[in-house]
Each structure stands twice: as structure tokens, then as C-alpha cells.
Amino acid sequence: MARTTDPWRTLTDPLIRQNPVTLQILGICSALAVTTTLATAVTMSVALTVVLTLAAGLVSAIRRHIPDTIRLIVQIVIVASLVIVIDQVLQAYFAEISRALSVYVGLITTNCLVLGRTEAYARHHAPLPAMIDAFGNGLGYSLVLVFVGAVREFFGKGELFGATVLPLVDEGGWFTPLSLMLLAPSAFFLLGLLVWALRSVLPEQSEAPEHTPPLRTEPAE
Amino acid sequence: MAGREWNPLRRLLALPNESRAKTILVAFLVSAVCAALVSGATVLLRPIQAANRAAEEQARIAALVEGIPGMAALLEQSGGTLSTVVIDLDRSRAATEVTPATLDAALGDPGNWTALDPAQDLAGLGHRPNFAQIYLLRDGDDVSLVLLPLSGQGYGGRIDAILALKGDMNTVAGIAITGHSETPGLGGRIQEASWRSSFPGTELRDEGGDMRFRVARGPASDVHEVDGITGATRTGRGVTQMVRFWLGPDGYGPLLGAIDRGEF
Question: What is the pTM assigned to this prediction?
């Protein structure tokens, strides 16, 4: 982990170079589940970014007083309470979207991205850098979610934010929706392609192969 | 350290992090603050959420009415709106002293609830309110549609629904699920239009007047059944028991008889 104190670097690093989803493959469960439409993806991104930033700030503020033996419990309690509050706010002000997200808002608690950041960064840094780092990571997560959500809604329904972009065959247009895009596996494919593309452009992100294939000549036919 | 610290909280916080007292103190403080935060948010936001749920229920009723074939035309004839009536379930007629506005207050009084003994209590409710708010559509003097709120025990918790019956008080015109806590993807599919679409046309009783309605295990095989949901047998049984209870003698049964005889 780069030990830089430059706040701009802390904020922008997690967007592409240290993206928590594509590089560290953290928090992909929700990234796959809520990206069928752009609206749910954006709501989920905002909810996660807010929870992550606040949790990082709180954990960082009491970091000198968290006993090591119960540090995970303390962090999870803080994260879980924030998630419940966010869930209640969504239910009150965004009832439609809250229904579409159903259990996944609650599952932010178990999103390894949140615990990963509070455990790895917020516990060792002052509140402001911790919150900047958390916000940057939230934005990195949001970037991936919005990309996957946009592609899935665009090709799966011919819409963006519920507004028709490509007229469907059913409604007299020409576009046949790819219903595979609305199923969970397509999110896996898209995420895989995204990781592949990123690592082709930025080869330093690729991991060293864990196994080297044995050298052997092609067997003769 | 210059001088002794007299504030006990500061003295505790100055303890080494690994000491038992400090561990317990931190755990307690964090839980207390978090508990306050969660309770505060819940209490402050509850009125808005309740308003949302009420609006949603109204929207569901509107959607339910709209989904019934020929309903739009009927509504126009009768002046465009459903009339809301509070029913006294014990006397099976309109309640005189309770109005829709005072219904919530009346149901807050335990005296307005009847305990059910286990043999009667098909839907697993324990207690039944004595008053219920129903919606009627009249065509001339006859009731042509009635919307009945139901509730019963499902697999994950209580299921709330509104059942629409046609003028013969035996044919289902539609159902709306207004609240449930069933497993998403299994029992939770009772909320989906594809499952609810097997309700219209289902008949509750046979010619002899016996209650025959049931959620089948698998596809429906006769006019008294609706399709079951694979993997949600207990949810299906909950819906069956809920409909059977509420349309039986301890629920709206006597009222439906009165409407059918034209006494309402």
C-alpha cells in the first residue's frame, strides 16, 4: 500500500490504479446483484460511499481506544449501525428504490470493501485522510457499479435510467434486448472483461502467476 | 503526567487498550452510541415510512382495481370511486361508531379484538380485530365488487393482502399483496404479477357452499385452486389458510352472506 500523505493521491488512487473492485476484487457480491439497472446501481453506490466514509471517520476518531481483541466487533457494530440508518433513510425518502434493492442495502454490512478499508487504513490514520481514502474507495466502487449497471441496462432493456434509448422490437423498434444481460452471470462476464481490459492497459496490475505451467512440447498427433 | 486526573472517564480512557476494564468500557460505549443512533433514526423516520406504506397500499388497491377486466367501465358508471366502509365483524354490518378515520384508534383498544381458539384460528393470528375497513363498488343497489383486507401467518412472518371478489361473492377478481416477509425469490414471489394473475376467476366455494379454495402444490388442477410456487410450500399453505379463515364463518363469511342476500 502506498504510504502517501498527499490527499489528492489518496482520493484518486482508488479510482483506477488501486480500484477496490477490479484490482482487489473486494465487494463484488453486491456489485453483481444490484446492477441490473442504472438507478439501483447509483443508489447502492451512494449508500456504500456514505457508509464507508462515515465508518472510516468514526473508526479513525476512536482508533487509539479500540482494544485489539475486540477491534473487528467494534468496527462491524459501527458499520452495521450506519447501514441500518441509511436503510431507514432510503425507506423513508426513496421507497421505490429501497424496494428494488431489497436485502442488498443490509448486506453492505458484510461487504468486505467496508471492513477492508476501516481495518487496513482508517485504523492507522487520522480521521480526515481516512475519510478521503474511504470516499475515494467508495467512488472507485461506484465507478465499476455504474459502468456495469449502464452496460446491463443498455443492452438488456435498451434503456438508461428507465428512459428508452434503443427502441425495442416489441414496441415497434429494431432492438432485440439481450435478456442474458439481466441475469447475474452477465455481471460476472462484464466484470471479468473489465478486469482484463484494465490489466491489459495497466500491466502492473496483473498478479504474478501462482503456478507456472510445465514446459512441454505438443504431443504428436 | 502532571497531577492526578480526577475525571474517572479520562482515567479509564488512559488505561492501556488491552486492559479488561477498558475493553468492556469501549465495547459498552460503542454499543450505546450505536443503539442511540439506530433507535433515533427509526423513531424519527417512522412517520414518513408509515405515510409511504399507506400511499403504496392505495396504489396497490388502484392497480388491483385497474387489473380487473371491465373495471374501468364499471368505475365510471358508479361515479369513479370505491366507497370505504368500516365493518363490524361480529354483527356483520357497517359499524356505527367507528369510521375509517377513527379505525386506528379503535384497534388500539384491546377490547376491540377477539381472541381465537386454536380450532378457529386457521390463519395463525391469535387475535382478530372486530372492525375491518373494506371497499365496495355498487352497481345500482347491488354490490358488484368488494375488496377485503386479509392477513395471516406465512413462512417468514405475517402476510397482508387485499382480495377482490366479484358480485357473486364467490369468484375472485384479483389479489394484491400489501406486505410480507417471505424469502426473496421463493415465497417472496407471491408479490409478483405472474403468480397473482392465477387468482382472477378462481372460485372459493363449490355448489354445496363448502370452502374449496387452495394454493395447489404445483400447477392448479381445478377452478378452486391457484398455482403453487415451487420451494414455497409453507407460504402457499399460509395463503390458503389466510383466505379460508377470512372468508369463513369467523371472518367475512357472514358479511358476504348478507351482501349476497341483498341485505347490505
Answer: 0.66
